[in-house]
Amino acid sequence: MATKVTNPRTLPEAEIGVIGGSGFYSFLDDVTEVQVDTPYGPPSDSLFFGELAGRRVAFLPRHGRGHHLPPHRINYRANLWALRSAGVRQVLGPCAVGGLRPEYGPGTLLVPDQFVDRTKSRAQTYFDGLPLPDGSVPNVVHVSPADPYCPAGRKAALKAARGKDWEPVDGGTLVVVEGPRFSTRAESRWHAAMGWSVVGMTGHPEAILARELELCYTSLTLVTDLDAGAEAGEGVSHEEVLKVFAANVDRLRTVLFDAVAQLPANEDRRCSCGSALGGLDTGIVLP
Ligand SMILES: [Zn+2]
Fold first, then answer.
1. What's the CA-to-centroid distance between 273 and ligand 1, angstroms?
2. CATH superfamily of 3-275
3. Is the confidence at residue 237, as pLDDT, over 90?
4. Is 227 among the catalytic positions?
5. What is the pTM of this model?
């Protein structure tokens, strides 16, 4: 059982963040649950602090406990801000996706190297020129998501999967749709025809907000179904997604935990994620 702390004067420290369901931390010993607030409001849920392979990890249930937040209503800015406030500098973001190619059937693990944003209504920057509650005003800053995922994190995820005899797909494009509805057949065929690999609802703006906070971010996508245009069947159902996810959550957890163990110490990062802002004056102090 988690020890619950409300309004701590100082947060427990973590170095790595995992944004995903409660299935990833619920069996850990000595988990501390901490409610955190941010200038952007509360995150999806408490942060759950635990230790894995000697690393301090903060887990955050992306959809909240009981999965009550649909993808378009998740407070992505609060989620990433809360993790950074806790000391997190490297984030792993597992999520369920639909496969856009027949060969990417249920159970496929794909570690994307690109995303395409087809969302519509989400706050996707910290640097929008609007004042924060403390009166500070973020400058308008443009960061590059040309290569949106951390190379070191991707390497750790791929190595961890291979170590579990779960041959991952190395690279591919995650197209992120607004949801909560799934795609029409026409949309799905279009996504596939563009050469994109998998489709999901939560990969954006998570990755770009992490970049804006100079965090390493790695997406691990688990295919739970073939998207409507990639098969001749009835299209995807929510039940089907949950069933395949449940069947794979144990091995996804073991891969995540091995990936955590293989990530470099925050001070030893050699990727460029930690300098994504290039020393620009953002007008706000990152936590
Ligand atoms: Zn990185």
1. 4
2. Nucleoside phosphorylase domain (3.40.50.1580)
3. no
4. yes
5. 0.93
